[in-house]
Amino acid sequence: MLELEKQVAIVTGGSRGIGRAICLSLSRRGATVVACARSEAALKSLADDAMEGQHAGRIEPSVLDVGDRDAIGKLVDTVSDAHERIDILVNNAGITHDGLLMSMEDDQFESVLTTNLRSAFWLTRAVSRIMVRRRYGRIINISSVAGMMGNPGQANYAASKAGLIGMSKSIAKELGRRKITCNVVAPGFITTDMTDILPDDLKANVKKLIPLGRLGDVEEVAEVVAFLAGAAASYITGQVIVVDGGMHM
Ligand code: NAD
After folding, report:
1. pLDDT range class, residue 52, cuts 50, 70, 90
2. Residues 6+ apart with CB under 8 A from 105
3. Segment 33-49 mean pLDDT
4. Does the annotation mark 136 as catalytic?
5. Phi, psi of 163 (to 5 degrees)
6. Pocket-forming residues, ligand 1, beta carbon under 6 Å
7. How far, in Å, from the CA of 92 to the mean position of ligand 1?
8. Hey, is 158 helix, strand or coil?
9. Which band of pLDDT confidence, cut at 50, 70 and 90, is reported for residue 55?
10. How far apart (Å, rounded) are the C-alpha atoms in residues 59 and 246?
11. Virtual CA dihedral for 196, 38, 184, 76, nearest 10 degrees?
12. Residue from 116, 113, 106, 138 nearest 225 by CA
């Protein structure tokens, strides 16, 4: 039997980048993965890839804007009605909207906080009710080293990612007795659409700060998430696992 067989996972921002790799790595281990994203087309290609790769688990595409609190409630009800369990939650959806502090608009701050932090609160609150009933759960929040180090032009993003770390530690303390773990994965620079938009000279400078001398791949983050979701991580909770080639230490 595969490690995550019969388990049900919800992953947000599953259509591309790190989230897509997480969906594939959990389904490869046998989980049924409810992959959420705003675009139906992008999710279909993810489900097709999993079929082609003959993954043991299923990918169930689900259109969801994580900034829509009511839609989050409906999604969790639908998944729990269909499967009667939610074992794994990965809050991965995230955006940047960079700008220097003095010219940062309220909207720019609020939208990043909503997509990156409030959404994780709404989803975790809803899913935790099901996990508590079953006395089992793995919650994994995707933060960033920016939430630990700060970054010029990212007051909004760094605040949201630091907020995820504090929230996760509180949840870990609150739900530990119910056999629910909550951990954080904090990537450094990973090759995705989010970092593709950075200028080449900035990427070259960043590489100089990374002891391993390169940007990371999405699979290198996804494998850590799969580890935290699996049996081998049963005694790990409230931790921040940094996946950054040694950039922040
Ligand atoms: P990406 O831009 O390639 O993917 C982000 C995903 O989030 C997409 O699937 C997008 O559709 C989804 N998303 C955004 N807003 C959404 C919304 N309102 N509702 C539903 N889905 C939404 O980025 P990525 O690099 O794969 O980032 C994934 C996560 O990893 C993010 O939380 C990001 O902050 C974090 N991260 C990335 C890096 C990096 O270097 N790429 C570094 C540190 C942390």
Report:
1. confident
2. 99
3. 90
4. no
5. -60, -40
6. 12-13, 15-19, 37-38, 64-67, 92-95, 115, 142, 144, 187, 189-190, 192-195
7. 6
8. helix
9. confident
10. 33
11. -170
12. 138
Per-residue pLDDT band at 49 (split at 50, 70, 90)? confident
Alpha-carbon distance of 176 to 228, in angstroms, equals: 15
Q: Residue 9 in contact with residue 36, Cβ under 8 Å? A: no
- Phi first, then psi, for residue 66 (nearest 5°) are -70, -10
Look at residue 63 and give its three-state secondary structure: strand
Q: Is the pLDDT reported for residue 231 higher than 90? A: yes
Per-residue pLDDT reduced to its tens digit, 76-100: 999 999 999 999 999 999 999 999 9
State the alpha helices, DSSP H only, in 91-240: 106-113, 119-134, 146-149, 155-175, 193-196, 200-208, 218-229
CB 140 within 8 A of CB 183: yes
The amino acid at 200: D
- pLDDT for position 192: 94
Look at the pTM and tell me if it is higher than 0.85: yes
